[in-house]
Design goal:
The chain has a single domain, classed as MFS general substrate transporter like domains (Growth Hormone, Chain: A), CATH 1.20.1250.20. 78% of the residues lie in helices and 0% in strands. The chain has 18 helices and no strands. It is globular, with a radius of gyration of 21 Å.
Length: 441
């Protein structure tokens, strides 16, 4: 792997420094890129489930949210291999490839004559998100080094999910005013082209920063193991194969196991919010604009608060935010279910956003704390694989329960899963942020 072979030119470049301040320009460019990545999801938040119900007359809850399952499955698989691919082919090239697959998404949605086309469009969207979002995560981690991972990831996820919220509101308004098609999808074409051009022309690859961090890590920790004691294998040189990293992240390391299952349940909740909540709110005769506002509260509050929670996790630790965040999401779901009125739904969706903000960047930072720099991108990919499989369980599993029993019971089960996931984190996860001293950004 190239990370073990440091070329002389990179070694002698004294201008390369890890940290947010010396790399602020590229950091902010990546924030902008991820805003466009998130906008591609926001394009579907409000409009696509309504197209399934109103335009195509689909009655099955599971079938309506099947587009989320196709998206989540493909994104999960791409997450699994994106890190390894970027180690060999470069972060920037994988980022560009992700955007190439994003361009067809709004075009297919615009001309789709039946629901199968929507599912195909979300295969492309899954590739786009699996490659492009993964690279913005890895590239920001590369730039800032180990001290400000939580802050960097909070900023990354803020830009993505705040964009999901804003675009969800805009497309809801356009749909309520002008119809479900075509205007929302014209925006999508602009997002995809802009993301591709910025990634191609302005973004710089971060290989040299990864190499520098690896050198620093091996200098400062010559005998440190590559992971926690969940595995018996010494990984001080970071030379783990893909299969070993997969099992280390998924099972052998108990902290990584707890983190991965929390990520899965978190995105299961997001998948239900994305798909079933749209149908749930529309059953109360809300129009697309009102639904768009309600749906935007979850990713909007989640996105903004990550600016605080990511930095907070650098100072007080990861675990102390993760399990209360899972509990808060469950409480938000119960508030939504038992309110039966608009202001109660606002409160519930807001709590859902607060809980997700506590969890989302913190889980990514915790993975980065544990994994060796040489296989960190692969470990992040394995975590993101399990996390995004949650979309599939949320769409297929919870959608099926809603069809077989009722939507209220299906969503109730999701709340209890959030509680159970938080308990698993409490019992299995060790604190991963070993240096909790305040440091300057």
């Amino acid at each position: 792997m190239y990370l073990l072979t440091v070329d002389r030119e990179t070694n002698t470049d004294s201008k390369i420094k890890l940290g947010l301040r010396p790399n602020i320009n590229q950091f902010l460019i990546l924030v902008l890129v991820n805003a466009f990545v998130g906008s591609m999801i926001g394009l579907e938040q409000t409009v696509v489930p309504l197209i399934g119900v109103e335009d195509f007359g689909i009655q099955s809850n599971a079938l309506v949210v099947s587009f989320i399952a196709s998206f989540g499955l493909i994104k999960a698989i791409l997450n699994l291999f994106a890190g390894k691919l970027s180690d060999r082919w470069s972060r920037k090239n994988v980022l560009i490839l992700g955007w190439i697959f994003g361009i067809p998404v709004p075009i297919i949605l615009l001309i789709a004559p039946d629901w199968n086309w929507v599912i195909v469009a979300n295969v492309f969207l899954g590739i786009n998100q699996g490659l492009a979002w993964s690279m913005t995560v890895n590239m920001k981690i590369d730039l800032v080094g180990k001290e400000k991972r939580g802050f960097a990831l909070g900023f990354n996820e803020f830009s993505g999910y705040f964009s999901v919220a804003i675009v969800g509101i805009i497309t809801g308004y356009l749909a309520a005013t002008y119809g479900l098609k075509p205007y929302p999808f014209y925006l999508g074409i602009v997002f995809a082209v802009a993301g591709l051009l910025i990634s191609w022309l302005i973004v710089k690859d971060t290989k040299k920063f990864t190499i520098l961090e690896l050198k620093n890590h091996e200098r400062d920790n010559p005998e440190q193991r590559g992971s926690e004691t969940g595995s018996n294998e010494n990984t001080s040189d970071g030379s783990l194969s893909f299969v070993k990293v997969f099992f280390e992240t998924s099972w052998k390391n108990r902290s990584l196991l707890a983190i991965s299952q929390a990520g899965l349940v978190n995105n299961l909740i997001f998948g239900v919010s994305w798909g079933l909540f749209t149908i749930y709110f529309s059953s109360y005769a809300l129009n697309a604009a009102d639904i768009g506002i309600l749906k935007a509260l979850h990713p909007g509050i989640w996105g903004v608060l990550q600016l605080v929670t990511g930095l907070l996790s650098d100072r007080i630790g990861r675990k102390i935010l993760i399990f209360p965040g899972m509990f808060t999401q469950a409480i938000g779901i119960w508030v939504i279910l038992y309110s039966n009125e608009y202001y109660g739904w606002i409160t519930g969706m807001s709590l859902l956003g607060v809980g997700t903000a506590m969890v989302y960047p913190t889980l990514l930072a915790a993975i980065s704390d544990i994994s060796h720099p040489n296989w960190r991108a692969t470990s992040l990919g394995v975590y993101r694989f399990w996390r995004d499989i949650g979309f599939v369980f949320g769409a297929v599993g919870i959608g099926f329960i809603a069809d077989m029993i009722n939507m209220f019971t299906a969503i109730q089960i999701v709340a209890w899963m959030g509680i159970a996931s938080g308990i698993v984190v409490m019992l299995l996860m060790k604190e991963t942020k070993t240096n909790l001293r305040r440091s300057k950004i």
